[in-house]
Amino acid sequence: MLVALRRVSLLRPSALSLSLSLRLFTTTAATATTRTTTTTTTRRRIMMSAASSSASASSASSASSASSAVKEASKAALIVVGDEVLNGSVQDANTFTLATTLTECGVDLVRVETITDDVDDISSTMRRMSQLVGPDGFVFSTGGIGPTHDDVTYLGAATAFGRSLVLHEPTLREMARYFLRRRKERIELQLKERRLRRQNKRLTQLNNDIDNDVDQDDQQLNQQLAQQQWLQQQQQQDEVEIETISEDEEKDPAKFINASRQRMALFPSDCKLIAVPQLWVPIVVVENVYIFPGIPSLFRRMLRSENMLALLRSRGQPWYKGTIVTDVAEGDLAYRLAMVQEQFHRRVSVGSYPKQHPAGGNRYYTELSFRGRDPELVEQAIQQALEHVPGKSSPVVVDQGSKVNSSNKTSSSSSSSSSSVDGGSDSGLGDGGNSKRNKKGKL
After folding, report:
1. Which residues of 114-124 are buried (b: 16+ CB within 10 A; e: fewer)?
2. Which regions of 328-425 does DSSP assign to beta strands (E)?
3. pLDDT tens profile 335-353
């Protein structure tokens, strides 16, 4: 019995060990299974994440490709050169002309500055503006290309880009021909006036002869005396020598252009020129800077020449515009417009403009403007605004800007060799009496 009990007691630890071993094996197996499941799940998540990332990258790449496929519009800046504008002697009209023309062509005007007639000021501003708009952009300058001491825009442009001024002989010759034609017209007018004076003189003498044959009262005598004085004045005018044109000047008028006028043909070296029909002065281009005269009629005529408009349109993207007219005042709808603007961010520009009612009185209405380069987004913004603002909307159309006087539109069928223009100034570019910038013909 004793032996048997010992055998049993000796066997119990073994059974306990076996039980513990089984439990340990079961736990280990469960742990291994859990680890396997966890690993599999993790792998699935990684694969799903990778697939999601791949899809996002593909989507971003597609969006990027679509975005890059759309050509961006060029930027433009304007430099108005002239002390007379800054001191209020002259009202600038060129900014409006440029803004409307660029809107029509789809180019973005991003900056306008008015500066003094100073070489350093002009050169530094041109460099800064040139960098602002980029190599495909446009920097327009107006004014400062005339014959006087303060006309230093060409020199400023040369200084800005490390160039020198050189005399452009073809422009000088065209300028000389223009001034020669003007002198001929002036001489012909003087000769015509002289012929008329002589005809009037003969008629007056005939009347005096008739008056001498009849009785004259005091009134007739006074009238005759006045006529005689007039005849004496006419005689003095007839004795004034009318200028003549020599054969040498006819053959080579450029030799007779004085130094002051030659300044208008001194251009920065290696510049490009855009010819404008019917004008002797070209558009001078240095890098991305386009130099124009300051006279509004000439600026408009040159800017809207066929060659210049074609260049602007080739680098622009059209704007689309729609409007909402509402009787709600700006202060009452401002927060609603802010929500629309925030939703469409910079893709659609939203503006509001109070205007007086056509019926007059103290009645006003608000015109809401929606502009963007995607007509569908513009329409969506309008519909979004109509959910919050009662009003009447207009169809979305291409924004052509405000109408610019088209009387100065020119054709490129003729070259710049013809230089006659309406009006006249010492600059030889004329103004036609239509300048708000300077009626004296300031360039």
Report:
1. bbbbbbebbbe
2. 348-356, 364-372, 392-393, 397-398
3. 888 989 988 888 899 999 9
pTM: 0.67
Residue 443 CA neighbour count, 13 Å, CB half: 26
Token duo for residue 76: 């433009």
- The torsion region of residue 345 among left (phi > 0), alpha (psi -120 to 50) and beta comes to left
What whole-number distance in Å separates Cα of residue 373 and Cα of residue 106? 9
CA dihedral (9, 12, 17, 18) in degrees, to 10, reads 140
DSSP label of 146: S
The answer to whether residues 180 and 429 touch, using CB atoms and an 8 Å cutoff, is: no
Q: What does the pLDDT look like over 173-210, one tens digit per residue? A: 998 888 888 878 877 777 777 777 666 666 666 566 55
Output the six-digit token pair for 157. 């442009």
* Phi, then psi, of 434 in degrees rounded to 5: -120, 20
Dig out the tokens for 68 from the structure: 């890059």
Query: With b meaning 16 or more CB within 10 Å and e meaning fewer, what string describes 192-226?
Result: eeeeebeeebeebeeeeeeeeeeeeeeeeeeebee
